[in-house]
TrEMBL record:
<protein>
    <submittedName>
        <fullName>Membrane protein</fullName>
    </submittedName>
</protein>
<keyword id="KW-0812">Transmembrane</keyword>
<dbReference type="GO" id="GO:0005886">
    <property type="term" value="C:plasma membrane"/>
</dbReference>
<feature type="transmembrane region" description="Helical">
    <location>
        <begin position="227"/>
        <end position="254"/>
    </location>
</feature>
<feature type="transmembrane region" description="Helical">
    <location>
        <begin position="83"/>
        <end position="105"/>
    </location>
</feature>
<keyword id="KW-0472">Membrane</keyword>
<keyword id="KW-1003">Cell membrane</keyword>
<keyword id="KW-1133">Transmembrane helix</keyword>
<feature type="transmembrane region" description="Helical">
    <location>
        <begin position="166"/>
        <end position="187"/>
    </location>
</feature>
<feature type="transmembrane region" description="Helical">
    <location>
        <begin position="199"/>
        <end position="221"/>
    </location>
</feature>
<feature type="transmembrane region" description="Helical">
    <location>
        <begin position="12"/>
        <end position="34"/>
    </location>
</feature>
<dbReference type="Pfam" id="PF03631">
    <property type="entry name" value="Virul_fac_BrkB"/>
</dbReference>
<dbReference type="InterPro" id="IPR017039">
    <property type="entry name" value="Virul_fac_BrkB"/>
</dbReference>
<feature type="transmembrane region" description="Helical">
    <location>
        <begin position="125"/>
        <end position="146"/>
    </location>
</feature>
Length: 274
C-alpha cells in the first residue's frame, strides 16, 4: 500500500516535530511584520492577534512565564524600530521558521518518488520563499481567522449577511487552494495545478475529521485532574501538528498514486520521462 511504501505516519511525525520547533519563529516573524505594518493593517487587528497569542501561550506556559517572558517579547517584537525588520536576528528567525516547510516540500517529493530530483539547496531556497509568502498571506488571513465570523460581521455591519453566508465557504475554498499550490510547487517537475486538487480536498477532509476526533479525545484525556498536568497543552499542540502533517502527506500520496496510474500530459511522471 502507498501509506506503507512512503512511511506516511513516520514522515508525518518528522514534519510535526520540525513544525513545532518552527512555530515560535513563525509567530514572532508574523507579529514582527504586523508591528511594522500596523498603520496599514490597523492597530485593533494587531492587538486582537497579540491577545490571541497571549491566550494560547497561557495554555502552554505558567502565568509567571507569560508575564516575564512572553509579554515582554511580544511587546519588543511589535514595538521594535524599522531597522529590526532587516536585522540579522529577524533573518535568522525567517530561516529557522522555514524549516517546517522544507520538511513538507521534501516529504511531498518523496511521496511522488522524486525525493532525489531536486537538490537540497534548491529545496531550502524554495521552502524559504514559501515561508515568506506564508507570512505575507498570514498578515491578511490571521486577523480574519482570529476575530471569527461573528466579530467580523459586527465590524462590517453593512455586509453582515454576506459575511455570515460566505465566511466558512471562503475559508474552505482558500484552504483547498493553498494546499493545491503547496502540492503543485513542491513537486520537482511542473504539473498542471488542477491535478493536485483531489489530494488537497482529501487532506482537508481528513484534517477536519481528525481534528474533531482529537478534540474529543483530548477533552477526555486532559481533564482538570488529569495526570498529564502542565504537559497537556504541549502534547495537544504536537498531536494537532501531527494530524495536520498526516493529512497533507496522505493527500500527497493520493496525488502521487493518480500520477503513477495515469501518467498523462501534465503529470510529474510524464514530465520526468519527457
Amino acid at each position: 500500500m502507498a501509506g506503507v511504501n512512503y512511511r506516511v505516519t513516520g514522515l508525518a511525525g518528522e514534519a510535526a516535530f520540525f513544525a513545532l520547533l518552527s512555530l515560535p519563529p513563525f509567530v514572532l516573524g508574523l507579529l514582527g511584520v504586523m508591528g511594522h505594518l500596523s498603520g496599514l493593517l490597523g492597530q485593533d487587528s494587531v492587538q486582537e492577534v497579540k491577545e490571541w497569542v497571549v491566550n494560547q501561550s497561557e495554555l502552554l506556559f505558567t502565568s509567571n512565564t507569560v508575564d516575564r517572558v512572553v509579554m515582554p517579547l511580544l511587546n519588543d517584537v511589535l514595538n521594535g524600530g524599522q531597522v529590526s525588520l532587516i536585522s540579522v536576528g529577524f533573518l535568522l528567525s525567517l530561516w529557522s521558521g522555514s524549516r517546517a516547510l522544507f520538511v513538507y516540500v521534501d516529504l511531498i517529493s518523496i511521496a511522488y518518488g522524486l525525493g532525489e530530483t531536486r537538490g537540497i539547496i534548491r529545496t531550502r531556497v524554495l521552502s524559504f520563499g514559501l515561508y515568506v509568502a506564508a507570512l505575507l498571506i498570514g498578515l491578511v488571513i490571521m486577523p480574519i481567522l482570529v476575530i471569527g465570523p461573528t466579530l467580523l460581521s459586527n465590524t462590517l455591519s453593512r455586509y453582515s449577511v454576506l459575511v455570515s453566508i460566505f465566511y466558512w465557504p471562503v475559508v474552505v475554498a482558500g484552504s483547498v487552494l493553498m494546499l493545491t499550490l503547496l502540492y503543485h510547487v513542491s513537486v520537482p517537475r511542473r504539473t498542471r495545478w488542477w491535478r493536485e486538487t483531489p489530494g488537497a480536498v482529501l487532506a482537508l477532509i481528513i484534517w477536519i475529521l481528525c481534528a474533531a476526533v482529537l478534540r474529543e479525545v483530548l477533552a477526555a484525556w486532559f481533564k482538570p485532574l488529569s495526570i498529564y498536568g502542565s504537559l497537556a497543552a504541549p502534547i495537544a499542540v504536537l498531536l494537532w501538528l501531527y494530524i495536520t502533517a498526516l493529512a497533507v502527506l496522505i493527500g500527497a500520496t493520493l496525488n502521487a498514486e493518480v500520477d503513477r496510474l495515469w501518467p498523462r500530459n501534465g503529470t510529474a511522471r510524464h514530465e520526468l520521462c519527457a
